[in-house]
């Protein structure tokens, strides 16, 4: 197939390479002139044969909305836009409606795989009509991991379902990472365990917690056994927050994911106001010692 790809950052750049390795013809656009194939989105569109397929891989929010708005004015009936970024699922129907005014199809695609996807393949969760998904299937098959399609690709439902599935996926990811992190800290604090990296490496085969995230933790410990080259400051992409909003809206208890998100918030506080209050209360009711701010 011939496809346009807008956004050649950490994910998009590698996706272009994987698609080309599968012998698809990819024209990429990025504001970075050192990686782009064409100088403008308009030229990307004009380089494609109809019906066109354009994959958008830019940051969620205004950047995605502006790009899709521009495409709605450049593409024609029968063309297809795929949003592979981390857009909030509530934006998808708006974008689909905008494109539909000109007869342009729309698919939302949740993409997982990070910087490893170029070699390992990307896990894909898509939303849209069956006809549109079938039209783009050669692209999805090139991007997903080798093997059974069902184990690396899902047509989750109508427009919005792909990004909804990816949102929940990322909420689960938050919880799993936090569990590994807490286990690591407990092992480090122990006076019984001598070799923490050896223990975690030993979990990679035969244990019920073996996983790709565990493999990545082992890789990080190989590079920095005590992880003391890093500051314990963790951002969140937004999908963890959206997952918890949905949990509240649907009355679904999600204590693990909520704790993981709040732990990230706590990581950004050098001097927590809440913990100062806890220290003050402990001192008041129990006479427990406190550390003064200037100490």
What secondary-structure arrangement, pairings included, does this model have?
Blueprint lengths: L1 E5 L3 H12 L3 E5 L11 H7 L5 E4 L5 H13 L5 E4 L5 H12 L4 E8 L4 H4 L2 E5 L2 H14 L9 E5 L3 H29 L6 H6 L10 H12 L15 H11 L5 H13 L5 H14 L9
Parallel strand pairs: 1-2, 1-3, 3-4, 4-5, 6-7
Antiparallel strand pairs: 5-6
Helix pairs in contact: 3-4, 7-10, 7-11
What do we call the CATH topology of the largest domain? Rossmann fold
Q: Which radius of gyration do the C-alpha atoms yield?
A: 23 Å
User: Helix/strand-derived class?
Assistant: alpha/beta
Global morphology: elongated
Number of strands: 7
The CATH superfamily of the largest domain bears the name NAD(P)-binding Rossmann-like Domain
Tell me the CATH architecture of the largest domain.
3-Layer(aba) Sandwich
Task: Note the beta-strand portion.
Answer: 5-15%
Report the average pLDDT across residues. 93
Distance between the termini: 65 Å
Task: Kindly provide the name of the CATH class of the largest domain.
Answer: Alpha Beta
- Parts with pLDDT < 50 across at least 5 consecutive residues: none
Any idea how many domains?
A: 2
Instruction: Report the major sheet.
Output: 7 strands, mixed
Helical proportion, percent range: 40-55%
Helix run count: 12
């Amino acid at each position: 197939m011939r496809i346009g790809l807008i956004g050649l950052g950490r994910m998009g750049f590698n996706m272009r390479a994987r698609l080309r390795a599968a012998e698809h013809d990819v024209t990429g656009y990025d504001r970075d002139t050192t990686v782009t194939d064409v100088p403008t989105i308009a030229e990307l569109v004009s380089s494609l044969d109809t019906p066109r397929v354009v994959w958008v891989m830019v940051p969620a929010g205004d950047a995605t909305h502006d790009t899709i708005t521009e495409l709605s004015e450049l593409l024609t009936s029968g063309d297809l836009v795929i949003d592979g970024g981390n857009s909030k699922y509530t934006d998808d129907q708006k974008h689909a409606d905008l494109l539909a005014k000109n007869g342009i199809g729309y698919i939302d695609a949740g993409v997982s795989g990070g910087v490893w996807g170029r070699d390992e393949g990307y896990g894909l969760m898509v939303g849209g009509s069956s006809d549109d998904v079938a039209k783009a299937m050669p692209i999805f098959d090139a991007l997903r991991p080798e093997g059974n399609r069902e184990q690396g690709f899902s047509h989750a439902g109508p427009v919005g379902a792909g990004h909804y599935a990816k949102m929940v996926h990322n909420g689960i990811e938050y919880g799993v990472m936090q569990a590994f992190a807490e286990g690591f800290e407990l092992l480090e604090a122990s006076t019984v365990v001598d070799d923490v990296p050896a223990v975690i490496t030993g979990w990679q085969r035969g244990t019920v917690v073996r996983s790709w995230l565990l493999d990545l933790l082992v890789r990080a410990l190989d590079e920095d056994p005590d992880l003391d080259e890093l500051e314990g400051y963790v951002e969140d992409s937004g999908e963890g927050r959206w997952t918890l909003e949905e949990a509240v809206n649907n009355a679904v208890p999600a204590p693990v994911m909520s704790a993981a998100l709040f732990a990230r918030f706590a990581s950004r506080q050098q001097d927590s106001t809440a913990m100062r209050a806890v220290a003050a209360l402990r001192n008041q009711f129990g006479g427990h010692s406190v550390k003064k701010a200037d100490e």
